[in-house]
Every structure is written in structure tokens, then in C-alpha cells.
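Re-run with default settings, no changes from the original entry. Doing this only to confirm the output is reproducible before filing.
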Amino acid sequence: MATKTREGQLVEAFVTLADTLVVGYDLLDLLHSLVSKCVPLFEASAAGIILTDEEEFEVVASTNERSRLVEILQLRSGSGPCVESVITGHSVSVPDIDASGPKWPRFRHGALEQGFGSMFSVPMRLRATTIGSLNLFWERTGGLPEEDSPTVQALADVATIGILQERALRESDVARQQLQYALSSRVVIEQAKGVVAYTRGASMDEAFTLIRTHARSNGVPLADVAAQIVSGDLAL
């Protein structure tokens, strides 16, 4: 099979996100699809998404445990590029984490410890509402080329519309319910990853791949599969 061109991958990413505007979808699977497509598109080492319900931030999607840990570190300290992007509603570029200075000491230490040299965060926003950030990590320094910044923002914007979409625009409770579902489901998914990793002798990343593959193959929401694993009704 021929390798897709970058343009082909980008079209595929936008088509996947656009589908959420007209058909039913699994919110968590949408977010994981977005971060998974961003890694090869922008030659990143990892990608992740944090969402907020205006009271707390949570990591709801990540391509590997290293980026998830860095994002969690920022949320716990209340500072870092990911958090700043949500608060300000603007993109935040860190082309050299080691030289980022004293602004985010815990982020700097944690990111370097996980082997990352640069990162880029864009807000997930719709008009005046910012619901989270899409975050890219690289092991090298340099970060995201300037010409790619609008493309990353465009992907984040379409994903945001997919999350809120018309139902949420008509009724604000729907948006809150969608976000709360993603935030609360994160807990059971992490528990399920731990169960599968233990029983299969696999890494957490491998465990999540098994869970997600089963969910997509059987047309079952990711959170439902995770709940079945945690309750013992399903073994992978």
C-alpha cells in the first residue's frame, strides 16, 4: 500500500473531523483520532488534548504516557503552555524547553525528564468560548514550523465545533454534558488501561490500543468498553 502524502493525511484528518458535524460520533474517539493524526502530520513525537469545564482541567486524549504525564504536571501546578493557551485563548510556542527560563519551572523539569525538547499549544475555541487546548510535543528543539501554525489551529477549531456542534449551540447544557462525559470517562479509561496492562503484561500505551481497537471493531463507545473491563465483564 502506498504511503499517504502529507496532503492526503491532512484531507483525511479534516474529513474525519467534518463527519462529526453531520453524523453521530463517540466524543472520546474523535479526540484520540485527532491527536493520532497530528503526530505524523506535523512530525511530532506526541500529542495530547486537555479540556476544561470552567472548574477544572483534565487530560482527555494523548498519544502516549509521556505527553500525558507532562500535561498532568501542568494541570497540577496550574501553569504551563497548555494551561496558558486555554486561559489566554492564544497559541503558545516553546521552541526550546531547556531554554524556556523560570516561567514554568515544573513544566520545564517534567518535559525535559520525559525527553521532550519543544512543544506547541493551540486553544480549542469557538468565538469567545475556549474549552481546551491541542498540544504537540517534539523530542527535538525547534517546535512547529511557523507556516504550519494555521493548520494546527484549523484542526483544533473543527474539532471544537464537532464537540459543541449545533445541539450545544442551541442548548448550553448539552455542551456541559458532553465535556463532563469526557472528563468523567477519563477516570474509568485509565483504570481499564491499568487492568489490561497488568493482565496482558503490556505497556499502558499498548493497553489503550487494545481497548480502542475493540471499541471501534464492535461499534461500542470507548467509555463503555472501559467500564466493562473494570467491572470484569470483559477481558481483552
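The longest strand covers residues 129-138. The CA atoms of residues 44 and 138 lie 5 Å apart.
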